User: Which sequence fits this backbone?
């Protein structure tokens, strides 16, 4: 945990209980520009009162309002002694010789926020485990918490592996492709609130993998992409074994993402993520994200699940639970789930249109258009009018 300023705390997770140092509002506060009055003086309208002064926001007044008197008051100013209501300036008329005509009857308490009516001094406002966003920032500021205790952000190592991978600035030669997983994983780590740390791509040989994985073990969580399926040069797991990294599971009955490996070493966590870009993506959202949340003091919850009407037939022959890229948009009252027409787990070009993953349960061989279905949302909901295709 560490102490940071409110501005530095944005998007971080609070690690302390924040309570209020004073009643809120701290005084009976006028909610309008107008006149502080005694409601009993304005039971009927119109009524003529004598204006005996004014009070501005940020000021107080020693005046005590007496029978037949009014005091001009601004929004946010303390209501003076003796007054028990504020009449809006729109419902008054200035008259000669410091008189004011009130045009409507006034009720006790009208347009006054009494001291402590929002929260009382000592009340708990924020508890540990909450991500600091817009209103958390205003609550912290209102409570005078210039410095706030937040959880440390875990550092996440990202290691791409594969002899075929070249850098983004390079032109791939025959048989080569550009490394994209490092970029998508980096973005996913950032979105999870953790700190990404890129390692140099490892070749598919024991020495290179070992060196890079050892380097990666300096981070809190190491994400290795590629090299975990059944190929002759998928050497990540043998290297885990040599380094004493304990594997907890190495296969998940899902599609895409079956060869997902979860392991640990001392107090570090290690994932072997399947190399295909979509498989890596799904494995991250389902397994890495909850861990990164837990490490930041958040509930280790999975992505939010939404229910919607499926907009196309989906056939799923794998027999595994499938998580297929889909676009979830708000339709006429109900959410619509549009499966994205993807061409396999390397197809990031179709996935770029998705904001969710359609869930096809393992026991369902097909889902029909018009049926109710579920999706995991990993990005903002789209509005039908924003449809991009
Ligand atoms: P692997 O699990 O290493 O057999 O990789 C599976 C597939 O994913 C292969 O087609 C790889 O070329 C591809 N792949 C592996 N790593 C990456 C990466 N970092 N970026 C893009 N594609 C990758
Ligand atoms: Mg590979």
Assistant:
């Amino acid at each position: 945990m560490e102490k940071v300023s409110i501005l530095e705390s944005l998007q971080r997770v609070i690690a302390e209980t924040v309570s209020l140092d004073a009643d809120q509002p701290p005084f009976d506060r006028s909610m309008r520009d107008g006149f502080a009055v005694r409601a009993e003086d304005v039971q009927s309208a119109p009524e003529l009162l004598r204006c005996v002064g004014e009070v501005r926001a940020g000021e107080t007044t020693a005046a005590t309002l007496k029978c037949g008197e009014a005091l001009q008051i601004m929004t946010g100013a303390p209501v003076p002694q003796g007054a028990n209501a504020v009449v809006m300036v729109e419902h008054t008329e200035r008259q000669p010789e410091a008189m004011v005509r009130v045009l409507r009857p006034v009720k006790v308490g009208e347009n006054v926020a009494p001291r402590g009516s929002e929260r009382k001094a000592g009340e708990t406002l924020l508890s540990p485990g909450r991500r600091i966003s817009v209103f958390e920032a205003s609550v912290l500021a209102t409570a005078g918490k210039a410095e706030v205790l937040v959880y440390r952000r875990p550092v996440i190592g990202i290691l791409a592996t594969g002899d075929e991978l070249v850098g983004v600035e390079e032109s791939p030669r025959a048989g080569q492709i550009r490394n994209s997983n490092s970029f998508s994983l980096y973005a996913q780590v950032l979105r999870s609130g953790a700190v990404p740390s890129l390692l140099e791509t490892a070749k598919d040989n024991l020495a290179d993998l070992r060196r890079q994985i050892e380097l990666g073990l300096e981070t809190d969580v190491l994400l290795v992409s590629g090299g975990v399926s059944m190929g002759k040069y998928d050497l990540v797991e043998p290297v885990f074994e040599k380094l004493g990294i304990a594997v907890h599971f190495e296969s998940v009955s899902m599609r895409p993402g079956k060869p997902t490996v979860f392991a640990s070493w001392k107090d570090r966590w290690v994932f072997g993520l399947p190399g295909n870009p979509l498989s890596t993506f799904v494995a991250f959202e389902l397994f890495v994200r909850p861990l990164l949340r837990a490490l930041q003091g958040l509930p280790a919850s999975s992505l939010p699940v939404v229910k919607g009407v499926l907009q196309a037939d989906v056939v799923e022959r794998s027999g595994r639970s499938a998580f297929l890229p889909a676009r979830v948009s708000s339709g006429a009252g109900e959410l619509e789930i549009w499966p994205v027409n993807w061409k396999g787990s390397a197809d990031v070009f179709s996935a770029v249109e998705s904001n969710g993953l359609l869930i096809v349960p393992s026991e369902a061989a097909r889902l029909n258009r018009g049926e109710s279905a579920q999706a995991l949302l990993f990005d903002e909901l789209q509005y039908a009018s924003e449809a991009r295709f």
